[in-house]
């Protein structure tokens, strides 16, 4: 009998892609590209360590998708043209050299833009200033700007940006799959969230209308992605609002997860700050369990404080197929190898991400 902690070392299939184990590196913003958004040699070494350390899947940091409003951070990588795509090819080749798979996370920052070399303005569903302060470790300072409300043309351009970025990610950069970033307060989540979406057109109203943009992006991406897996990352909490909960509770979770499943996604990536805890005060069910209940046949990636065996086992019991690690992967780029050998797991040192969260030479020496 395989114990739950060892189950994550067994292989798993997402569509036609076989992963050598069920451990993934979660997407983490590291702002280590050039000022023009090209991936760098430092990034290649950073990603290669995780594949060399045994992770079956690596999910990239959020990659901006167009040359209008999608960029969120200075030194964030993009995939808007052939040059940027080829820069990523050096990274995917290194991951493949260690029998790992790598997905591109495609991201539109929307109203949470802190820096954008293509535009002096941010854009979102409505002219609502985001909560909180810009993140200093991503070169941010002060309040977020009030975004301009996106026009129908802006929305169409954003959808097309996701699709064209996905095409380049697969055909030129060599990624094995696409993760659409629909979580953590960025553009697609802004349309989904009640207080950031105050539109009076077809993009607002019931939860089914508020998630419609995500569904249209899925359709557009799947049309160009060929046979590679296409999935979505989804969350309640946001980088600027950690305590947010879906207003309608489990009923809203049912609508969201059911809609994503019906859209034909190949996987769903559910993330919470502490993913094993109840999603709502009215139930003991975690968001992982609710995702499994309402999207029963969709492969499920779970993320959020799951680096301890107890919490990982809880997530697997709740229905997760793959465990995605963030901080634990930074501290242990060889986490799968350590788990297989029953070696001690290093504690995460927050100094890695300070004062700026770029990849540093001493970090590359870990593992």
Helix/strand/pairing category: alpha/beta
Mean pLDDT: 96
Indicate the proportion of strand residues.
Answer: 5-15%
Integer tally of domains: 1
Detailed description of the structure:
There is one protein chain. By secondary structure, this protein is α/β, with parallel strands linked by helices. It has one domain: Alpha-Beta Barrel (TIM Barrel), CATH 3.20.20.70. It contains 13 helices and twelve strands. An eight-stranded parallel barrel has the order 3-4-5-8-9-10-11-12, surrounded by six helices. It has a two-stranded antiparallel sheet with strand order 1-2. It has a two-stranded parallel ribbon with strand order 6-7. Helix 2 (41-52) packs parallel to helix 3 (82-96), helix 4 runs parallel beside helix 7 (212-224) and helix 8 packs across helix 9 (287-294).
Which labels suit this protein?
eight-stranded parallel β-barrel; TIM Barrel
Brief sketch in words of this structure:
The chain is an alpha/beta fold.
SSE diagram, text form:
Layout: H1 4-7, E1 12-14, E2 17-19, E3 23-25, H2 41-52, E4 57-64, H3 82-96, E5 101-107, E6 123-124, E7 148-149, H4 152-171, E8 177-181, H5 187-192, H6 207-210, H7 212-224, E9 230-235, H8 250-262, E10 267-271, H9 287-294, E11 300-303, H10 309-318, E12 322-325, H11 327-331, H12 335-340, H13 361-364
Parallel strand pairs: 3-4, 3-12, 4-5, 5-8, 6-7, 8-9, 9-10, 10-11, 11-12
Antiparallel strand pairs: 1-2
């Amino acid at each position: 009998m395989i114990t739950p902690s060892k189950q994550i070392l067994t292989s798993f299939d997402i569509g036609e892609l076989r992963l050598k184990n069920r451990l993934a590196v979660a997407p983490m913003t590291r702002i280590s590209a050039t000022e023009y958004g090209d991936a760098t040699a430092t990034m290649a070494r950073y990603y290669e360590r995780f594949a060399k350390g045994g992770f079956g899947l690596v999910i990239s940091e959020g990659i901006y998708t167009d040359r209008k409003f999608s960029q969120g951070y200075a030194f964030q990588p993009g995939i808007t043209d052939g040059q940027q795509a080829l820069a990523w090819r050096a990274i995917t080749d290194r991951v493949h050299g260690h029998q790992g798979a790598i997905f591109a996370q495609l991201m539109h920052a929307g109203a949470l833009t802190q820096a954008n070399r293509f535009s002096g303005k941010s854009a979102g569903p409505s002219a609502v200033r985001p909560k909180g302060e810009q993140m200093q470790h991503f070169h941010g300072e002060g309040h977020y700007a009030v975004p301009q409300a996106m026009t129908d043309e802006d929305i169409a351009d954003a959808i097309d940006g996701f699709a064209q970025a996905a095409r380049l990610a697969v055909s030129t950069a060599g990624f094995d799959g696409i993760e659409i970033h629909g979580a953590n307060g960025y553009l697609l989540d802004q349309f989904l969230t009640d207080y950031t979406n105050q539109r009076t057109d077809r993009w607002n109203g019931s939860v089914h209308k508020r998630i419609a943009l995500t569904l249209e992006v899925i359709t557009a991406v799947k049309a160009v992605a060929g046979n590679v897996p296409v999935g979505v990352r989804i969350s309640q909490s946001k980088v600027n609002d950690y305590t947010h909960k879906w207003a309608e509770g489990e009923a809203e979770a049912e609508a969201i997860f059911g809609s994503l499943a019906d859209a034909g996604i190949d996987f769903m990536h559910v993330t919470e700050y502490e993913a094993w805890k109840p999603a709502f005060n009215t139930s003991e069910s975690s968001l992982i369990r609710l995702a499994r209940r309402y999207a029963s046949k969709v492969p499920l990636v779970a993320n959020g404080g799951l680096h301890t065996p107890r919490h990982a086992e809880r997530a697997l019991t709740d229905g997760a197929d793959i465990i995605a690690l963030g901080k634990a992967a930074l501290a242990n780029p060889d986490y799968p190898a350590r788990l297989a050998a029953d070696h001690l797991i290093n504690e995460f040192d927050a100094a890695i991400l300070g004062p700026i969260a770029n990849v540093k030479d001493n970090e590359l020496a870990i593992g």
